[in-house]
Amino acid sequence: MSLKGKVALVTGSTSGIGFGIATALAREGASIMLNGFGNPAEIETMRSTMAKQYGVKVGFNGADLGHAEQVSALVAATRKQFGSLDILVNNAGIQFVAPVEAFPDDKWQAVIAINLSAAFYAMKAAIPGMKASAWGRIVNIASAHGLVASPNKVAYVAAKHGLVGATKVAAIETANDGITVNAICPGWVLTPLVQRQLEDRARQAGTDVEVEKKKMLQETQSMLQFSTPEEIGALVVFLCSDGARTITGAPLSIDGGWLAH
Ligand code: NAD
User: Fold this and answer.
1) Between 20 and 30 A from 185 (CA), which of 92, 103, 161, 217?
2) In this structure, is the dihedral angle defined by the CA atoms of residues 69, 160, 38 and 20, taken in order, positive or negative?
3) Cβ of 85 below 6 Å from ligand 1
């Protein structure tokens, strides 16, 4: 229970990687504010189960992170409900796939808003309180696509590269305030976001999802396996630990060797 007494906000935690991170932090004793979209009854079950299983306080706030004012309101609501905000994980993200010349303007705006701008607004709102308590951990979930590109993902790759840059700036600015700011850069993790891409690829190629899973891994990920949300959660827990006290401003790959190419 290394994080007992800490309060964590994990954006986009009703699914996939965010849920894995929230679960890992709850297991260490942190109070959790969940956020994201989904079926209200299922989210309530998720919230109450997590609270009961780990004996921690768990709240939920359905802020839409595509809107700046809702991001700062989410940070304020977390502080109001739990009394502080010690760990901020900017995880919410969306994907859209099309070549540059056919990429819809509204999709560009949405991907940049949710994958990049929301993290800026959340850090802006969270840092003053972390400075006041002289302790804070910010983890931005970027991607291998924060460091290298793939075709047809112009908005996502731009947003994730931007997020790595914003991470470095925030890290330098808070380096002597007891705060660390890092980016995690996962390769492929089998979540609903990737499942949708696999289904699209199978439809277009006339294959099936199992065939496309193998092809997807072979294209980029030397280790022909997906990472799991639990493994991303374990890395977040480490970044919140005393052992990671001097790791800041770092883009940390967890990608089965993708970036080693
Ligand atoms: P997911 O689709 O399973 O989960 C995304 C979460 O974000 C959901 O809880 C969803 O409700 C929430 N969300 C989406 N739009 C939102 C909005 N406007 N406001 C609030 N919440 C919103 O996806 P995932 O694969 O778990 O992705 C999580 C993060 O990890 C994303 O930032 C993604 O870019 C990143 N990532 C994923 C992979 C992968 O292979 N899955 C790889 C690298 C990085």
Assistant:
1) 103
2) negative
3) no
CA–CA distance from 94 to each of 75, 115, 199, 201, 208 (Å)?
20, 7, 16, 17, 23
What is the C-alpha radius of gyration for the chain, rounded to an integer number of angstroms? 18
User: 7-189+227-255 adopts what CATH topology?
Assistant: Rossmann fold (3.40.50)
pTM for the whole thing?
0.98
Q: Which atom of ligand 1 is nearest to the CA of 115?
A: 32
User: pLDDT tens digit string along 161-202?
Assistant: 999 999 999 999 999 999 999 999 999 999 999 999 999 999
Whether ligand 1 lies within 6 angstroms of the CB of 92 is answered as: yes
User: Domain locations in the chain?
Assistant: 7-189+227-255, 190-226
- Can you tell me the distance from the alpha carbon of 89 to that of 233, in angstroms, rounded to the nearest whole number? 10
Q: How far is CA 106 from CA 102, 103, 113, 232, in A?
A: 12, 9, 10, 30
Would you say the CB of residue 39 lies under 6 angstroms from ligand 1? Answer: no
Active-site residue identified among 54, 121, 156, 188: 156
Is 117 near ligand 1, meaning CB less than 6 Å away?
Answer: no
CA–centroid distance, 252 to ligand 1, in Å, is 18
Give the position, in ligand 1's atom list, of the atom nearest the Cα of 232. 30
**Region 33-40 average pLDDT:** 98
CA distance 177 to 246: 12
